[in-house]
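Hi team,

As requested, here is the filled-out complex form for the nicotinamide-adenine-dinucleotide run. I kept the field names the same as last time so the parser does not choke. Let me know if anything looks off before we queue the next batch.

— J.
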Amino acid sequence: MKVALVGYGKMGRVVEEVAAARGVEVVDRFTRSRPLSTGDAARRALSGVTALVDFSVPEAVPDTVRAAADLSLPLVIGTTGWQSRLDEVREVAARSGIGVVRAANFSLGVNVFYRLAEQAAKLLARLDGYDPFIQDWHHRFKLDSPSGTALEIQRRMARHYGEREVPITCQRAGYVPSVHWVGFDSAADTIHLEHRARNRRGLAEGALLAVRWIAGRSGFHDFQDVLADLLPVGQDGPSG
Ligand code: NAD
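And here is what came back:
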């Protein structure tokens, strides 16, 4: 399998490391000073690539999708913060017929944790006396607060708590990569679920899993669609 990286910063480099360990060839790396182009040379260099993997900056995403469409190459998007351009990106993907997978968090563990949190909320929202809460702890350099992951957990729990907003508390201190807790506290006891990331490798593994999955598919997908194929159990719905 071959990929090309759009964005070669902290995440791009980890994707390259994990790709090497998995026998996936990185054929090219595009950056701010050398963005992805659709000229003949790029077309030749990228022939045979399974997908482009984008961990860059939000403002570059729409142009990258247009270039991927022009090159007829599938795209895995890890870049966050381009929600306001979502409709435009979806439309380009739909019109061109290329496959796109995006996720704000490509960690397999976090994506399983979303489901666990939701299942716990589904059970405990039916009982009186359990107060739900979410906690998010990240290193001192993280700018956004709450994290996108905490917000996604809150969104999923809201399916079971209706109007009642599940509170999030955040800590930005120290060097810990990322920890999320989901708790339910009653007068009798506390139930605590924890996800603790050790490094960025799990994110890169998930992005490469998405590359393998999108090969030969079209349409706009979330990483949850990849996970649904990988783990077709424990989902809401008739068979859940
Ligand atoms: P970084 O600042 O270390 O790297 C950004 C890279 O993007 C740099 O190589 C820069 O040259 C490149 N870039 C800028 N403009 C570009 C353009 N027009 N074309 C191509 N490349 C361009 O950032 P990072 O920590 O690697 O994170 C990148 C993005 O990924 C951020 O949006 C971050 O929030 C997101 N992220 C997502 C996940 C996930 O699981 N989805 C995980 C970690 C980070």
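Two things worth flagging: The pocket of nicotinamide-adenine-dinucleotide is lined by residues 6-12, 30-32, 35, 55-57, 60, 78-81, 103-106, 203 (CB under 6 Å). The helical segments are 10-21, 40-45, 61-71, 86-96, 108-124, 148-161, 201-214, 223-230.

Thanks,
J.
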